[in-house]
Amino acid sequence: MKKLIVTLSLLFLFSAALSAQGGWAIGGRTGATVQFDAQYHWNKGYLEGRFGAGFCNHGGTVTADFSLMYNWKACRWSYWTPSAGDWFLDAGVGLNVGGREHYAYVGPAGIIKFGIQFTRGAKPVSLSLDWNPAFGGGIAYNRYSSHADFNEMGLANIGITCVVHL
């Protein structure tokens, strides 16, 4: 599990370094998870990496949760509230992994975000509501046995994300 997280993190950083145009945004997400959020933007999309604690799982315990996604900038509306900022709708795909002692989950994930990027001030700030369903398996294991099943709690991942564009 540690090797997978390190590999995905290095892939995220390498992909971001290859892009000549774009910029970083950092912030957080809360809801079904509490996570640090880092995004690297360019013209038509952005990479998003999140790491933190997940609360939406069987047993109600806290899990480590990591997501890496590619998001497309699907729609922009600058005429709704021109004095405040630009509204947006983004959609993407990626991977979600996580776990705790004797339990792990992994699977593909989707994301859809609706929000506003406030353009007043020195640095733009984006605030969005997102749904990030994961469609993977959950594996419970101990020294003597294991059991795998569809992780239906991964479909309930709803949150609010706020990032500052650097």
Structure notes:
It contains one helix and ten strands. With 166 residues, the protein is mainly beta. The chain has an eight-stranded antiparallel barrel with strand order 1-2-3-4-5-6-7-10. The two termini are 31 Å apart.
User: Could you tell me the radius of gyration in angstroms?
Assistant: 17 Å
Helix/strand class: mainly beta
Helix content: 10-25%
Nearest-integer average pLDDT: 86
Q: Sheet bearing the most strands, described? A: 8 strands, antiparallel, barrel
Fraction of residues in β-strands: over 45%
Number of strands: 10
What's the shape? elongated
Key features?
single chain, 166 residues, mainly beta, eight-stranded antiparallel beta barrel, 10 strands, 10% helix, elongated
Write the layout of secondary structure elements.
Layout (H helix, E strand, L loop, with lengths): L1 H17 L4 E9 L1 E9 L3 E10 L8 E19 L3 E16 L2 E16 L6 E7 L5 E5 L4 E5 L7 E8 L1
Antiparallel strand pairs: 1-2, 1-10, 2-3, 3-4, 4-5, 5-6, 6-7, 6-8, 7-10, 8-9
Nutshell version of this structure?
Helix content is 10%, strand content 63%. The chain is mostly beta strands and 166 residues long. Strands 1-2-3-4-5-6-7-10 form an 8-stranded antiparallel barrel.
